[in-house]
């Protein structure tokens, strides 16, 4: 039995409210679940922020026994500080192939790789050569 951490939808039409649940991967979205782990309200509250609440101990337990979080739950756990940031890729151009260089999830900037570090050291050597020839 593969256990997934996923969202189950509650609330009215145009007013969604989600519960974070541990459920068997074969059960439907709003069907049978093993345990309720928290909630997520995507609508802004009085302070203008989205609200969420998680039982951190139980989430850590389910992750330790091999439960796989769905993509929305991964983002919620990342915002709560329980998971590392999800890998992001940059778009080279619209509709074109994706650039596989890693992107910083907080700033959206492309991270420096070892190749660019090597190029950076060559640039510094070239500038040293130019200063010695003058």
TrEMBL record:
InterPro entries: Ribosomal_bS16, Ribosomal_bS16_dom_sf. Pfam families: Ribosomal_S16. Its main location: plastid. GO terms for molecular function: structural constituent of ribosome. One of its GO terms (cellular component) is small ribosomal subunit. One of its GO terms (biological process) is mitochondrial translation. Residues 87-134 are annotated as: Disordered. Residues 125-134 have a biased composition (Acidic residues). Gene3D superfamilies: 3.30.1320.10. It is found in: Plastid, Chloroplast. Coiled coil: none annotated. Keywords: Chloroplast, Plastid, Ribonucleoprotein, Ribosomal protein, Transit peptide. Belongs to the bacterial ribosomal protein bS16 family. PANTHER family: 30S RIBOSOMAL PROTEIN S16, SMALL RIBOSOMAL SUBUNIT PROTEIN BS16M_BS16C. This is Ribosomal protein S 16-1. It comes from Euphorbia schimperi. The lineage of its organism: Eukaryota, Viridiplantae, Streptophyta, Embryophyta, Tracheophyta. The gene is rps16-1.
